[in-house]
Design goal:
Strand content: under 5%
Number of helices: 1
Order of helices and strands: H
Mean pLDDT: 93
Structural class: mainly alpha
Oligomer: single chain
C-alpha cells in the first residue's frame, strides 16, 4: 500500500471516531434532557397524587362523621319508636 492510502485511511478512521464521539455526546445530552423532563413530570404526578390522597382523607372523614350522625339519629328514632309503643299500649 502506498503511504498516501494509509494516511487517507487513518484520516477517515479518525474522522469516523470523532463523529462517533460527537454522536455519543449528543445522545447523552438527549437522555439527560429526557431524564429531567420525566423527573419534572413525575414530580407533578406526585403532587397530584398527594392532593388526591388529601381529598380522599377529607371525604373519608366526612363520610365517617355522616355515618356517626346517622347512627345517632337511628338510635334516637328507636327511642322515639319505643316511647310511641309505650304510649300506644297505655291507651
Amino acid at each position: 500500500m502506498s503511504t498516501g492510502l494509509i494516511i487517507a485511511i487513518v484520516v477517515v478512521v479518525l474522522i469516523l471516531l470523532v463523529l462517533a464521539a460527537i454522536a455519543a455526546r449528543k445522545a447523552k445530552a438527549r437522555r439527560e434532557v429526557e431524564r429531567q423532563r420525566l423527573g419534572e413530570q413525575a414530580g407533578g404526578h406526585r403532587q397530584e397524587a398527594d392532593l388526591h390522597a388529601s381529598k380522599a382523607q377529607e371525604h373519608e372523614e366526612t363520610a365517617r362523621e355522616a355515618a356517626e350522625r346517622a347512627e345517632r339519629e337511628r338510635q334516637l328514632a328507636d327511642r322515639h319508636g319505643s316511647k310511641a309503643d309505650d304510649l300506644e299500649q297505655k291507651l
